[in-house]
Amino acid sequence: MKIPDSAVLSRVLDGLKQAVLLSDSAKAVRFMNGAAEDLLHISAQRAVGQPVMDVVPLGMILQAALIAGAEGTTTTLRQTPLRRVNPPSEINVDCTVSALPLGEGSDYMIIELNQVDHLRKIAQETWLQDRQGAFGDVVRSLAHEIKNPLGGLRGAAQLLDRELPKQNTLREYTRIITHEADRLSGLVDRLTGGYRDIKREPFNLHAVLEHVRKLTLVEIPLGLDVDRDYDPSIPDVVGDREQMIQAVLNIVRNAVQAMGSRGTILLKTRVRRQHTLHGQRHRLVVEASISDDGPGIDPQLIDRIFFPMVTGRADGTGLGLAITQEIIRRHNGVIECTSEPGKTRFSIFLPMGHRP
Questions:
Q1: For the chain, what is the domain count?
Q2: Statement to judge: residues 216 and 253 lie in one domain
Q3: What is the Cα–Cα distance from 125 to 122, expressed in whole angstroms?
């Protein structure tokens, strides 16, 4: 039996949600579908011809499975750690290796990969989304209850200030009341910023990142660099440009504060294939990542950094990342974070060709 050409294989296998690779008798990759590219963080163009042991880094247990597959035995490796290089991350996969029956003398094998922690990740995203939705309802109610009397308090302080003689020392206290009322009002505005209605217009994601980059370069101390690595093929996304600027700016400012006066922030964009957002599989999504080489996030906080009022800084409010996550969620996207000393990365995933 003749092996189908790559065009046929591409049409058939790229439609699968499961990651699939085809290896030959030399245990080299002959084909991989889009889901495998997304799972392994490597393009088919780079992978084809490479040893399957390098492309699918599962160690000697994969070697044993390939030998068993060559003998006609189907082998499944359960919950096996797989270390990806770019960007560095570790996932758990089920790996099934089986012979591909293409006729006498055929030594081709199919390797199927399934990310077993994927369902847990989807469940966590759903839980966070529900939590953010409930928090948004509370925020809107609190904002209304706070700002109405706050406006009256500020107005009364201003009227009292006008009635007092210019040299009266009591005017210092009315000005303190006005200043603190303005500060509290600004805090409420910041708290509710991610919950305003969003616009639904096409905008260029690179223009958003460049705007944030220019703002940051004006603010940061000498010794900090903001680099970029953009994929020029990324089309416009649909949503609210101003709110997306705020979402990215919150992350970048956190990175600047974490690094102090030395280090590099990297803004990077890529297209990801066969990616799941909020339980829905998308053929193509846009990934915008913000990385820094600072000290990293406290491991005790990493699972809660998107919760409101959670912060690792004594002077922090714990609102920035919560608002960022809400903005991304309202664009039908997902934000993820990985962190270790010397490498913290926030990744924003947005659907392509989909209106929020």
A1: 3
A2: yes
A3: 5
